[in-house]
Design a protein that fits this description.
mainly alpha, 453 residues, three-stranded mixed beta sheet, 6 strands
């Protein structure tokens, strides 16, 4: 990368490219684009409307097209692939690692997948089909088949001569994988041990047999946890019979962690991290319409509950003024609990064994906060309207709603997970409905009973 390109901050690339495109000097745009890392090019493409995106895509060097396509989201990738023919797609994928190629191929239309596979040599096609046979969100789907293997009965000198003949090692090779003559996993030999011990010693003397391999069907989320907990750079992958299949490297795990973080955030709004921010308005509106419809239905439910106490509201106008406070406090408290529980589920910290303790703890937290803040609200309501009953009623309603919010915040994610639904996607809507309905019923119900009864 040139010095001038390094001096430009990422957020300045977009402004610079927009200026160049407006001036029509495409040669300058091409030089600027191809001075960037593929990930930076992908960020720029995702930051542009469709017409400019396609224009810039034509300026990207053929050598990095495959890497750029891997970095963009699914929807953007599909729009770019539609501008390419089969030969261009095949050329873009030639230099990709096998695990990256598997990710790329799975995003292609079925017809293009067949044509792309047909254009590969037999060995690479078989290797790719091995990876594609596993779910993309599993260890088998993440793995690469480039593992360097050695036997336990050879000396370190033999291993070193073998590595020299290779001339290069796969990226993130921190250890060699030891297998027997039937490719059964035996252990690992760290590169540091290989380089710092007597070459006449055998692999069996120095290899580690306590490093557990990852089963190919292990969910990607568990793989990410394993790398995080044990500070791994790579991990061997085996099938159910213990036969070595390949290895997973830290760069693939980082992608899993990033995608999970983005998806957890966007799911709460009913969105997907692969959605194109610059997609056509009709397409974006269609995606969001369903989510808005669900929220509208829950809003009507809350409105219907309020309507049941219409007479009470007409008699005591102060209730209409104070009513949103009860629902809002319950919603915020419930969201705090809900977020913690969803995070605990994602990290594997919440399960049947500790649910009862967690529920008890959150109820105590709600009770303590409820006593404190309901007292504050009661005092403000009394000072505002000069009616002690109204102050006591809103305090009691808030306390009830905070307890229900804590209960819902713990139970809703657990119930949704048992139903195989994403708690991050549906939990917020359900929680809001519960805290609104319970808050309105508690506040208006108590008011009806003690003010108009």
């Amino acid at each position: 990368m040139s010095e001038s390109a390094r001096l430009i901050q990422p957020n300045e690339y977009l402004a610079e490219l927009s200026r160049i495109l407006e001036s029509g000097t495409f040669s300058s745009a091409k030089r600027l684009m191809n001075a960037l890392h593929p990930a930076d090019i992908a960020d720029l493409l995702e930051s542009l409307p469709h017409s400019q995106r396609i224009l810039l895509w034509e300026l990207v060097n053929d050598e990095v097209e495959g890497d750029v396509l891997l970095e963009v989201g699914d929807e953007v990738r599909e729009s770019l692939i539609r501008t390419m023919d089969v030969d261009e797609i095949r050329a873009a994928t030639e230099k990709l690692d096998l695990d990256d190629l598997a990710d790329f191929v799975q995003s292609l239309p079925e017809k293009l997948i067949e044509e792309t596979l047909h254009g590969m040599d037999k060995q690479n096609r078989q290797r790719l089909e091995t990876v594609l046979s596993y779910d993309e969100d599993s260890a088998g789907g993440l793995m690469n088949l480039d593992a360097v293997t050695v036997r336990a009965d050879v000396t370190l000198d033999v291993v070193l001569r073998y590595l020299r003949r290779m001339q290069d090692l796969p990226e993130h090779t921190d250890r060699l994988i030891v297998v027997d003559r039937y490719d059964q996993y035996v252990g690992v030999l760290g590169i540091r041990r290989l380089l710092t011990h007597d070459p006449e010693r055998s692999v069996a003397d120095l290899m580690r047999t306590d490093v557990k391999p990852v089963l190919a069907d292990t969910p990607a989320q568990q793989v990410a946890r394993l790398f995080e907990d044990h500070d791994l750079i790579s991990a061997p992958v085996i099938d159910a019979d213990g036969r070595l299949l390949g290895r997973i490297t830290v760069d693939d795990v980082l992608d899993v962690i990033r995608d999970e973080a983005e998806q957890s955030l966007l799911s709460m709004a009913g969105l997907n991290q692969e959605d194109d921010i610059f997609s056509p308005p009709v397409r974006s509106a269609r995606r969001r319409a369903i989510w808005l419809g669900v929220n509208l239905a829950t809003a009507f439910l809350a409105a219907w509950v309020i309507g049941l106490f219409q007479a009470t509201l007409e008699e005591v106008v102060a209730l209409a003024i104070l009513m949103p406070i009860v629902a809002s406090m319950g919603g915020i408290a419930g969201s705090q609990t809900l977020t913690l529980v969803i995070r605990g589920q994602a990290l594997g910290q919440v399960g049947r064994a500790n649910t009862r303790w967690l529920l008890s703890k959150e109820l105590w937290v709600a009770l303590l906060n409820g006593v404190i803040w309901s007292s504050v609200v009661a005092a403000i309501a009394y000072a505002w309207f000069g009616d002690a009953k109204i102050g006591l009623i809103i305090a009691a309603a808030m306390l009830i709603n905070l307890l229900f919010a804590a209960l819902s915040g713990v139970l809703i994610p657990l119930i949704l997970r048992s139903l195989r639904l994403d708690p991050a996607l549906a939990g917020g809507v359900v929680l809001t409905t519960v805290t609104d309905v319970v808050g309105f019923v508690a506040f208006l119900g108590l008011a009806t009973l003690f003010l108009l009864g």
